[in-house]
Amino acid sequence: MKVSEVAEQQLRRYLRHGSLQLALGPFVYRVRSSIPEVARGIQLLYADYPIDPELAFSDFHVTLDTPRAFKPFPLDQAYALFEWGLNWCVSTYANHYLKIHAAVVERGGCAAILPAPPGSGKSTLCAGLVSRGWRLLSDELALVSLTDARIVPIPRPVSLKNESLDVIREFAPDAVFGPISADTHKGRVGHMKVPEASVGRHSEPARPAWIIFPQYKAGVPTALTPYSRARGFMRLAENAFNYNLLGARGFEALAAVMDSCECFECTYSDLGEAVALFDSLETSRTCS
Amino acid sequence: MTPRIKVDLRCWDEEYVLFLDPPGDTHLLDPFSAHLITALQKGEAPVASLAERVAGTLDTWVDDELVHHVEGTLLSLRSHGIVEIAHR
Asked: What is the rounded average pLDDT of the residues A72-97?
């Protein structure tokens, strides 16, 4: 059953009773909240996601009602907090994967990993690519399998901030956005709905073929420059949440990723040009 | 190098990444440092012997410049906790 197949009142009942179990990639989240904005956001942005109220086990229990674990947030930031909470669960606890702070998109079976710090234009580029046919594996977390170094999808709504919201609205007029939270510690924040095709393939891992470090800079020409894979390894390790924790297993997983990838830096100021550049990427490797 | 430390050395595009377990540290190495690590993996040795091993790998001959380069690189590797230098 999908979220969209549940009546609004029933969805709110599930949420109030803590029996909404969202299946997102390899994880099941049991969500409890009586905040209407959270219900509205889930109904809109998670419409295509499978739920199962009868599941006996959930990986994470997420409650948004009384602020305890996190400092109090204004009510109009409840939906953004819900999304940040889901990120926090995985980035803190899911240590059976190597977790890299990166967006991941896929085309033709080959995945591109986009590691970057906040403010680099990673999510804007990711949203642009996804709105032009690339499959979303994640906007925030590259989950690397420790057994075969493939990327495990966790396709959740793309988090966009400030001017990026307007850029994507112009670039992809059909994009659907959830509640917009103003004046968060990150500024104005909104989440873009994931295309149904990406949600439908949420249990299909992909072989990484490219590692691309994006950097938005106003006025620069759009360019894809080859980058040393050894240096790319070090930057990926720095962007990982648990590389040091995993020790030799983390090193081996990351080395396997580098073995299968070409590495680039991408500077861009025009989203359309950047998407066209990604569309022209070719690989001599078989990604299946 | 301490025998109980497991060394994993990978090469991409003429640059190397070294992993030492324990302590779980990762280092980016230039090719000469990587060749020296490989020479050290064959066992501890005086600088002159290490220079011979590296010269064999690089298909060159041992001269003062190479020996100085080995000494300097060893000091640099020691400063990063990668090798230990025994004074006898």
From this structure: 90
